[in-house]
Amino acid sequence: MTVKQKNRVFFWIFVVFVIVLNILASVFYKRIDLTQDKRYTLSPYTKQVLSQLDGKIHVTVYLSGSDLPIRFKHFRMSIKDLLDEFKLYMGKRFSYDFVNPMSRDLTPEQKKKLYEDFRNLGIVPLVYQEVSNVEAKQIQVFPSAKITFLTTKNDSIVRQEVGLNLLNKDPNFEPASEQNINNSEQTLEYKFVKAFLSFIAKKSKTVAFVEGHGELPEPFVLAFEKELSQYYNVKRGVIGGRYGILDSFNVVIIAKPLERFSKADKFVIDQYLMKGGSLLLLLDGVKVGMDSIIYYNKAFAFPALVSEIGLEDMLFRYGVRVNSDLVQDLFCSTIRLVGEAPNGQKQYHTFLWPYFPILVTKNNHVINKYIDYIHTNFISSIDTIGKRPGLKRTILLTTSEFSRKIPINFPYEITLDEVNHLPPKQLFTQKNIPVAVLLEGRFKSAFAGRIVKDLLPQNARFLPRSKPAKMIVVADGDIIRNEVSYDGKIMPLGFDHFSGKIFNGNKQFLINAVNYLAGDQGIMKLRSRQFTLRVLDKQRVSSQYFLWITLALVLPLLVMLILGLLVGRIRF
């Protein structure tokens, strides 16, 4: 066989090999993730959730268009990579597309329908300002998605839709910054999986709201209950001193109690914690309401509410104290008051109200990571007490660097006239006052060393020390409260009718807190996932711009030239 014939044989063998390899790749597709942080690999928990979805999913992503800023084009690629992984795992049951909401090809009817969907799904655009050497222009970007889930029930197709804002709203970063977009890429899988969980009908865990001590009535926590019900079974009820009644619940929530807990109820709560339970306590340090201030122009803040309801001694034994004080912060929400214009017409005026601090989290824990502003209402400070072996305490929420505490040892008068005479800035010298804390580990019973025979049923054993347990204490009972309009309409959690704003951080923080307390390790691992941000040295790129452009253009040509010379020399 001549050399020419051998070359032909090798050529056709190579062609057949490539064709067979492509056929096998199309049938047995496998993507190899060589990244150090495995950013292109679905977690086992995600695969478990996807396997439980009994229906079809279609995702519409609204991040498209040739005029997208380069950062958002990269973000779109990350979204597409994740959706490709979902499709690879679910096959024909999963599909997606990218839509440009600003496209000129859309008819007026299509645009109207699109923006109606945005309003119904809570999708909010981002106005991004792009600055160049020539001009500065504003671009409207929709880093959002709509998830449509179709399933069959009783021979009919059931359609569910969920809106996702894929870009984090972390006040610590500019929305379009590289760091915020990288953080958003880290939480993409978490956000999608969290939405998928809402489509799974069977809930495996139960959350209970305690009643019977003046806690917030159900209409005022209904927004949060509705959110919780997407992931958990939600119950409400009275303890009634019945030992063990809480044991079947994964998380127990006590939201703003105003009346005293009996010794029997405290014992039930204590032993629930000792058995490894999880508590979310939302408590006010003082008793005061904004409604009285608005209607009567003044009100009195009464001290020692936690002591009055009988929980102070329990919390002290657990290593935490809600103080009888009010926290003021210069970084705060506003209130609108009605005045009279010169023409006799009503006129609204907006004032800062330091009694409503706005909290920005420190991203120091998976619970408070990358969440929006949190609105609070007459909050108190929290202290951790003494050393508690085997117990870890983490501060989750703090005030800003311009805050102060007002001790409430006797009725303290608050009037609306304070909006015109705010305390001088020099008084706000306290920084990062703790207002929420996580305690986890082994607790010592608040009833250790006390006679408890009359509280224990027959054959029940008193536990003086807990199994691994968790508890979160927040010094603001209203952080979970939703407004209810005069006609009975339930307003979104975080809506403040005094300023007219919605603070999404309230819902995000509370949902994360319950996820963590319920031991949902899979979803929390997704939330804590981190990608390394590898950023170019902008100063070096700018100073060596022409060098790198020249190398990028000339180096490949030189390599090809050298290879050509070498091949020619070898042949001859």
Please provide a brief summary of the model.
The chain has 572 residues and is an alpha+beta fold. The protein has 15 helices and 24 strands.
- Which residue ranges are poorly predicted, with pLDDT under 50 across at least 5 consecutive positions? none
Bulk shape: globular
| Biggest sheet architecture | 7 strands, mixed
What's the rounded overall pLDDT mean? 86
Q: C-alpha Rg, in Å? A: 30 Å
From the helix content, strand content and strand pairing, which structural class follows?
alpha+beta
Largest beta sheet: strand ordering: 8-7-9-10-22-21-18
Tally of extended strands? 24
Number of helices: 15
CATH fold name of the largest domain: Rossmann fold
CATH class of the largest domain: Alpha Beta
SSE blueprint and pairings:
Elements lengths: L2 H25 L16 H9 L3 E6 L8 H21 L3 E5 L9 H14 L4 E6 L4 E6 L2 E10 L2 E10 L12 H9 L1 H10 L8 E6 L10 H7 L4 E6 L12 E5 L7 H12 L3 E5 L7 H7 L1 E4 L3 H4 L3 H7 L1 E3 L2 E5 L2 E9 L5 E14 L14 E2 L6 E3 L6 E8 L4 E5 L4 E4 L18 E8 L27 E6 L20 E2 L4 E2 L2 H13 L3 H7 L10 H6 L1 H27 L1
Parallel strand pairs: 1-2, 7-8, 7-9, 9-10, 10-22
Antiparallel strand pairs: 1-5, 3-4, 5-6, 11-20, 12-17, 13-19, 14-15, 15-16, 18-21, 21-22, 23-24
Helix pairs in contact: 3-5, 6-13
